[in-house]
Amino acid sequence: MAEADERTSLLTRRVSVIPPEEPRWIKCRYVFCVMSFLGFVNVYAMRVNLSVAIVAMVNNTAISPNSTYNNDTCPNLEPVPSNSTHNNGDGPFNWDPEEQGLILGAFFYGYVLTQIPGGRLAELWGGKWLYGTGVLITSILTLLTPAAANTGVGMFTAVRIMEGLGEGVTFPAMHAMLSKWAPPNERSRLSGWVYCGASLGTVLSMPASGYMCDTYGWESVFYLFGLLGIVWFLFWAWIVADSPNSHPTISRGEKEYIAKCIGPAHSDKSPPVPWRHILTSVPVWALIFTHIAQAWGHYTLLTELPTFMKNILHFNIMDDAFVSAVPYLLYFIVSILFSPVADIIIDHRIMARSATRKLFNSLGFCLPAIFLVLAGYSGCDVDSTIAFLALAGGLNAFQYGGFMSTHLDMSPNFAGTLLGITNAFANLTGFLAPAFTGYIINQEQDLGHWRFVFFVASIVYFSGNMIYIGFGSIKEQPWNNIHNRTNSQEPASAQQEEGWRGGENGEVQPPTLTYIQIQTSYTRSYDPLSGASELDID
Questions:
Q1: At 468, which CATH number?
Q2: Which of 127, 363, 367, 516 could form a disulfide with 173, with the two C-beta atoms 3.0–4.6 Å apart?
Q3: Number of folded domains in the chain?
Q4: CA 434, CA 428: separation in Å to the nearest integer?
Q5: 536 falls within a domain
Q6: How much is the pTM?
């Protein structure tokens, strides 16, 4: 009992070095969070509007006379009655399913190329201008999309590739910025809130695109979202800073709070990337395969759901867009409500950080896998199909408390580069998944072929989660500070034996018997300055 009291007293003295935050209604890290959230709203609005617009752009009558329909389809279904009159005429382009798959996937040819450079440049030079410029370039190219489409498939594909080059830096740059702005005990919620802008962008873009196509023509979709992206960039350039240290109006209390919480795990100067250690790390490769599995399931729904709704369930363009947005509305709600839950579980020591990450990842992968299978076998029962697909898309948001926070846990110094690596591999599925779907359903528009597409996505989800559970790790990796340790006069192991480093003004805290006992009871990831959220029970 006395030992426990002594341990509690010691922890109290350690934590007391954190200065209290000044009472401000609006904290700069939350302003950064809101602006980043709105940035991803624009990013995904410009990315997915083509998924809806292409339904209005293609002349299906001209390309489908040889399509095969059998009894395993829903030829006369009227799923959503409407009193309004919709423009259901065919579009001007005779693109077959394989060409449509190429166009939908072209974005990702460029997207994967700038992932790793984007992450590293953000670590070296800061993410503000890199992230903002990426969105600005994509916005300008979105405005040029109608002219490119009317020029020909080649020009249209080239513009989509260039849009991918611009957007490719956004996620790695944001992860690099989060590593500077997000205290460890807020990582799940801040990353979840920032990235759920992607789902809200999808929710807003799909029905808005359907309405615009139906009312003003497909060209208007690209003009609207391109203009909104440029307006967002102006506010981003004015309000946001690269880090707390460079923010002109941040309070001293908030700046010191963030710095103390993040501690020495994040260096002010980005060291050289330890490529050999990263590329030979088993947890990194587990993260890569997990991210690939996530992306395959995600892009199968994102790019192909409007086509499934129209060709199999026979929704018109307006209803198609609204229903296709339902999974992402649920995704947004789950992100907002449940991302903080992971932090709460860790903060209150209900579960260790590792167990919490793997629990949330399992929920975000296995539940969607189950509902995709159920959707494939729900036949022409429209209500059940929509419900299962909505749950498959929405519950995937649990992943923000899972593998999507793991990059920050493993390596705050190289979080941008690490996400760039995993996202580059993952987004190969951005063109592979549409191409695979186009190959499977080409001139075979029936439930059986779509059922196979959903079943494959389900298997990929299950496999990715098993890899993460078996080989994933949330512990800060030795190579995160390898250059600091190399330059030190004594090895890291000796430093750890002497005691905890990083007290006020950076002095070395004297070793104590009680602290050494805590070190043997808990993992090294516990940092008293970052709160109980850093405690992982061995």
A1: 1.20.1250.20
A2: 127
A3: 1
A4: 11
A5: no
A6: 0.69
